[in-house]
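We store sequence with structure; for instance:
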Amino acid sequence: METIENVKSPESSQKIPLQNSTAVLILGIFSIVTSWCCGFIAFVGLVLGIVALTLSSKAIAMYQENPGKYTEGSFKNVNAGKICAIIGIVISGILILIGLVYIFIVGATLSTLFGVLPWENLIN
C-alpha cells in the first residue's frame, strides 16, 4: 500500500509556462524587424522593444521566485525575447539618431542655400 506522502498529485508535478513568454519573444523579434523596415522612423521598433523588455523583466522575476513551477523552455523564450528586444532598441536608437543628424544636416544646408540665393532678383 502506498501512503499519502508517496503519491504525487498531477498538478504538483506539471510545470506551467511563464506568463507572456511567447509574447516577449514575438515582440522582441518584431522590434528588430520593424526597426529595419521603418527606416528613420524607427519608433515602432523602439516601442515594441521597450514593451518586450518590460514584460521580460516581470517574467524573469516570476521565474526567480519559483523556478520549479515553470518550464525551462518558456524561460529560454523569455531570455531570447529579452535579447532580441535589447538588439531592437539599440538598432532603433541608432537609426533615430542617424535620422535626426540627417534632418539637421539637410535643414542647415537648405537654410544656407536659401539664404545665399538672390531672392529679390527672382521675385522682381
About this structure: The chain has five helices and no strands.
